């Protein structure tokens, strides 16, 4: 049986990425060529958006630490979730080979630690936005 | 990528076709969205250009193309221009990995109706669609405006928060099917619903063997999370007009704006397709297996090729109908529910959906373990 | 196979090019974005090695999570001073040149010195290599390939949950400790969310 896309689909992914990038840039260049261009460019037009007052320069951005915290906690929980995937895919096999209870309990311990972490975050109000 | 030049060419054309499928779906969706919202809000919507306002799309495209290409002084030009282009990529790459129909068998060749077959389909799709956060950040920072930056910050925090619930809600699904492969998942959902209980095999007469009946909680969580991933209402805090103008695309206009639109609708299409594949039987007809359809098609047409084409067409149509239904739900929800507040959004993601998804995982594992032990 | 070789060189070019870009850009945001590109390239290299799940993990965790944090943090800081100090100055310029030279030397040295090694390894494991290659190139049937590749992840899971289960649990504890520590640091004195 002949199959299409046998083996690595990597070539397809790379081709598609490059194709879309070229396609997008061509569209932008096309829009640039077709779209008009006014010669009279005032400073107000070239400024960034502001709500009807002179542009307020952003000096120092002070952003709530919650955003960083969210990102860091996301990394940690993401890694924990990724580790559940090989477990999920092999769980039925383990049950078939009679090791189901052991694997199930070992994952329960892992999830218990996970839940403890999550519960601690919730209790410490780290995930509370005001 | 195939064995000879002919196959490789077909494959590359297929990839282009999948991308164009998304791109051409966008104007239609925009039209449906505008007419649909008008219908929901008891107004007319676009109805001047062409019959039912259908040519409005064309007029919009011409308008977008003839707009002046413009970047503000403060913008960082390379990123400002790169962001809309990269916004097209993640959704299209992920969508290409979804099987849209039964493989077509003509003259010794087998053509899959999907961009490329990924044996770790889910992991690939999650990984690629996670890269969408960069386009938002690039656009927000590249614009050089504080509204854009704040919008990008909010949007990326929201996207990554809901990625957790998204990833965790499908652990139960993976456990149930025992595979990452999307085609195998669809195969497992064919036919009527049947399960083993107390030594008997029970076959339901009217329920299809779809994932939603086994994983209802996961389906709800996944659907909610895919709303948040595509930045649509009620999760469109990224562009809360009342607070931060238009979020990360405040400074964009004309065609670049349209490309962000295509990205957003691409994520919508991707979320609907994944929902269909995981919980609604993929391209399968409800309650009928692919083999039954194939034998029926062989009876109707003459020749193996004709039967194969008919089977593929029927299943593609089935997928399309399901996709349209889900896209309509996306639009319906957008024009029905109000927007969340930011703290409510984060609360929902971290303190409601994450624990529920964990509970679903444990429950699924328990049920699978005890059903296999007891029966 | 010629396509495999081409693919390898293409990916090597992408990874090394973006790696070089990381140290050559003066703007830290561009450096971080190049690092994302390098991570994606490494994920693609994993795919060529047949480690599909690891490639996915690389994409999700490194490219999708860790680098998002980096890029986010860099974009929010006012980087004018850093950009300036990176862009100007004889000492930093010299340091940059030296580091690029060292990097290039390491790469070239690695390639040159590893050539003999790999040839020997190839000769040793010629049998095994040709066996796997026949599986990959014949492409007799998609299903066959699928079985091979799915088993790859399944083998990983089996080993992880039978042999290395203790390490796995320890990792869970470690991740929780990091999470708790992060929050504790964020709430310590002087922060915007310090305890009252």
Explained architecture:
The complex is a heterotrimer of chains A (130), B (375) and C (196). Chain A has 130 residues and is an all-alpha fold. Chain A has four helices and no strands. In chain B, the strands form two sheets. Chain B has a two-stranded antiparallel ribbon with strand order 1-2. Chain B has one domain (66-374). Chain B starts with a helix and ends with a helix. The mean pLDDT of chain B is 83. Chain C is mostly helical. Chain C has a single domain (2-140), classed as Four Helix Bundle (Hemerythrin (Met), subunit A). The B-C interface holds B 1, 3, 110, 117, 119-120, 123-124, 126-128, 130-131, 133-134, 137-138, 140-141, 149, 152-153, 156, 160, 163, 167, 179-181 and C 3, 29, 33, 36, 40, 43, 52-53, 55-60, 63-65, 68, 71-72, 75-76, 139, 142, 145-146, 149-150, 153.
Could you list the spans of chain C in which at least 5 consecutive residues all have pLDDT below 50? 126-149
- The 3D shape of chain A can be described as flat
Largest sheet of chain A: none
Overall residue-averaged pLDDT value of chain A: 78
Structural class of chain A: mainly alpha
Give a count of the beta strands of chain A, DSSP E runs of length 2 or more: 0
What count of domains describes the coordinates of chain C?
1
């Amino acid at each position: 049986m002949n199959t299409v896309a046998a083996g690595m689909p990597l070539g397809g992914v790379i081709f598609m990425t490059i194709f879309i990038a070229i396609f997008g840039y061509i569209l932008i260049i096309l829009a640039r060529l077709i779209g008009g261009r006014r010669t009279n460019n005032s400073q107000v037009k070239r400024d960034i958006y502001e709500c009807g007052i002179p542009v307020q320069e952003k000096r120092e951005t002070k952003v709530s630490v919650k955003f960083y915290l969210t990102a860091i906690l996301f990394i940690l929980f993401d890694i924990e979730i990724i580790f559940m995937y090989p477990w999920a895919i092999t769980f039925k096999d383990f049950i078939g080979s009679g090791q189901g209870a052991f694997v199930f309990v070992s994952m329960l311990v892992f999830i218990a630690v996970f839940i403890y972490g999550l519960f601690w975050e919730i209790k410490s109000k780290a995930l509370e936005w005001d | 990528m195939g064995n000879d030049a002919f196959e490789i060419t077909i494959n590359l054309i297929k990839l282009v076709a999948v991308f164009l499928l998304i791109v051409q779906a966008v104007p239609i969706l925009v039209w449906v969205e505008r007419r649909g919202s008008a219908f929901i809000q008891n107004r007319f919507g676009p109805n001047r250009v062409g019959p039912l306002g259908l040519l409005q799309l064309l007029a919009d495209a011409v308008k977008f193309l003839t707009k002046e290409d413009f970047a503000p002084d403060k913008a960082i030009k390379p990123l400002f221009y790169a962001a809309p282009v990269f916004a097209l990529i993640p959704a299209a790459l992920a969508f290409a990995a979804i099987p849209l129909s039964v493989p077509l068998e003509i003259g010794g060749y087998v053509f899959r109706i999907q961009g490329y077959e990924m044996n770790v389909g889910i992991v690939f799709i999650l990984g690629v669609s996670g890269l969408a956060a960069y386009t938002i950040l690039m656009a927000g920072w590249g614009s050089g405006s504080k509204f854009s930056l704040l919008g990008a910050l909010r949007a990326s925090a929201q996207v990554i928060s809901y990625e957790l619930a998204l990833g965790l809600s499908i652990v139960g699904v993976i456990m149930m099917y025992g595979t990452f492969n999307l085609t195998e998942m669809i195969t497992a959902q064919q036919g009527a619903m049947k399960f083993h209980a107390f030594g008997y095999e029970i076959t339901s007469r009217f329920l299809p063997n779809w994932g939603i009946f086994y994983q209802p909680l996961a389906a709800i969580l996944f659907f909610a999370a895919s709303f948040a991933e595509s930045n649509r209402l009620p999760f469109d805090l990224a562009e809360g007009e009342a607070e931060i103008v238009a979020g990360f695309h405040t400074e964009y206009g004309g065609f670049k704006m349209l490309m962000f639109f295509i990205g957003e609708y691409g994520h919508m299409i991707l979320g609907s397709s994944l929902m269909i594949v995981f919980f609604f039987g993929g391209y399968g007809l409800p309650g009928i297996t692919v083999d039954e359809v194939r034998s029926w098609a062989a009876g109707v047409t003459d020749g193996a090729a004709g039967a194969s084409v008919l089977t593929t067409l029927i299943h593609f149509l089935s997928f399309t109908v399901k996709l349209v239904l889900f896209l309509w739900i996306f639009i319906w929800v957008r024009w029905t529910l109000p927007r969340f507040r930011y703290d409510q959004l984060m609360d929902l993601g971290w303190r409601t959906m994450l624990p529920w998804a964990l509970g679903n995982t444990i429950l699924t594992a328990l049920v699978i373990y005890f059903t296999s032990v007891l029966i | 196979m010629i396509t495999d070789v081409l693919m390898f060189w293409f990916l090597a070019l992408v990874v090394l090019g973006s790696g070089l870009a990381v140290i050559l850009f003066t703007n830290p945001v561009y450096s971080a974005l190049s690092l994302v590109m390098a991570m994606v390239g490494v994920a693609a290299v994993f795919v060529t090695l047949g480690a599909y799940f690891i490639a996915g993990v690389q994409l999700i965790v490194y490219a999708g999570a860790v680098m998002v944090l980096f890029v986010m943090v860099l974009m929010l800081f006012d980087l004018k001073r850093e950009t300036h100090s990176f862009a100007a100055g004889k000492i930093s310029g010299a340091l940059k040149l030296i580091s690029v030279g060292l990097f290039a030397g390491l790469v070239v040295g690695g390639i040159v010195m590893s050539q003999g090694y790999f040839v020997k390894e190839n000769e040793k494991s010629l049998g095994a290599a040709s066996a796997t290659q026949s599986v990959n190139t014949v492409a007799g049937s998609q299903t066959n390939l699928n079985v091979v590749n799915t088993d790859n992840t399944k083998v990983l899971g089996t080993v992880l949950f039978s042999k290395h289960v203790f390490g796995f649990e320890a990792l869970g504890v470690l991740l929780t400790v990091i999470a708790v520590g992060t929050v504790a640091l964020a709430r310590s004195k002087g922060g915007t969310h310090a305890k009252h």
